């Protein structure tokens, strides 16, 4: 790839990286000395010359971490269509709204949605929204479909220039094609470009995404059916943030009648959201992730 193209890619992505830092202001009260005139000849008695220690002003509590929820698809992009005609875009929005409700009810987080209604947003536009909110964590929610209707179960995905397996490669290709509904694709998706973009993701971000994926799998396992080897990776455009740990959650498959039926039920979506709240709690409780809560 020509150096100019590489510099344009790097410049375009790194321009999204937020650089603001919290300012710390410490106020000190002045020191007063009320010594009598004789102080020139004698050492003043403490009662006559009190020294006031600097006033200690407590630091403001850091802001609650902002979790950006991204309901997949929307508007003219229905996403996967289930066996009984259920649209993935509706399931994703309903599940994300329930997760938002539970997270806000906990009082521990701020929450924002890339979309809270039925509208189309380009994939890279979703990443831009997360950056504009200075999100601490990005979670994209989906319920895709496969040609094999027997496959069912939840799974979670992180970014990689190469797919972990053939099924994941097919899912990434399907998800990355969503921008076709918005006209000409604005993201470059050649293998070389994918590798360059993936290399720009910081090691800290990769570690955070892997930790979040592991937390979701741990929380899902006792209550929600999982794919075999549920933690996977591929080159998902929506996960290409350089500095926000990002995961894509497939809550199940609309191509499987049991998964589709479950995801249509509010009670099941509450269970999914509850498991994800537990995973998010575990993520932010980890010492190595504390820095994301103050970004």
TrEMBL record:
Protein name: N-acetylmuramoyl-L-alanine amidase
Span of the signal peptide: 1-23
PANTHER family on file: N-ACETYLMURAMOYL-L-ALANINE AMIDASE, N-ACETYLMURAMOYL-L-ALANINE AMIDASE AMIC
Keywords: Hydrolase, Signal
Pfam families in the cross-refs: Amidase_3
EC supergroup of this enzyme: hydrolase
Statement: the UniProt record of this protein carries the keyword Signal: yes
MurNAc-LAA domain ranges (all copies): 127-281
InterPro entries per the UniProt record, alphabetical: MurNAc-LAA_cat, N-acetylmuramoyl_amidase_3, TAT_signal
Source organism per UniProt: Komagataeibacter intermedius NRIC 0521
Keyword Nucleotide-binding: no
Catalysed transformations (reactions): Hydrolyzes the link between N-acetylmuramoyl residues and L-amino acid residues in certain cell-wall glycopeptides
Record-listed E.C. numbers: 3.5.1.28
SMART domains xrefs: Ami_3 (SM00646)
């Amino acid at each position: 790839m020509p150096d100019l193209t590489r510099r344009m890619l790097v410049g375009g992505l790194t321009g999204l990286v937020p650089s603001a830092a919290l300012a710390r202001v410490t106020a000190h009260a002045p020191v007063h000395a009320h010594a009598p005139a004789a102080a020139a000849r004698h050492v003043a008695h403490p009662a006559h010359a009190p020294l006031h220690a600097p006033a200690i002003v407590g630091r403001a509590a850091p802001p609650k971490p902002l979790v950006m929820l991204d309901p997949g698809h929307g508007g003219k992009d229905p996403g996967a269509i289930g066996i009984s005609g259920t649209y993935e875009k509706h399931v994703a929005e309903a599940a994300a709204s329930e997760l938002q409700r539970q997270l806000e009810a906990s009082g521990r987080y701020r929450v924002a949605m890339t979309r809270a209604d039925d509208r189309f947003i380009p994939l890279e536009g979703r990443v831009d929204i997360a950056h504009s909110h200075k999100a601490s964590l990005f979670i994209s929610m989906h319920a895709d479909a496969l040609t094999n209707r027997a496959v069912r179960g939840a799974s979670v995905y992180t970014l990689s220039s190469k797919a972990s397996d053939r099924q994941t490669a097919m899912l990434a290709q399907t998800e990355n094609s969503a921008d076709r509904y918005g006209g000409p694709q604005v993201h470059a998706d050649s293998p070389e470009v994918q590798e360059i973009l993936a290399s720009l993701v910081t090691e800290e971000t990769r570690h955070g995404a892997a930790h979040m994926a592991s937390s979701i799998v741990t929380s899902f396992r006792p209550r929600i059916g999982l794919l075999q080897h549920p933690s996977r990776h591929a080159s998902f455009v929506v996960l290409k943030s350089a500095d926000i740990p990002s995961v894509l959650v497939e809550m199940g498959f609309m191509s499987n009648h049991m998964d589709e039926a479950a995801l249509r039920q509010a009670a099941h979506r509450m269970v999914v959201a509850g498991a994800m709240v537990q995973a998010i709690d575990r993520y932010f409780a980890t010492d190595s992730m504390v820095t994301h809560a103050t970004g």
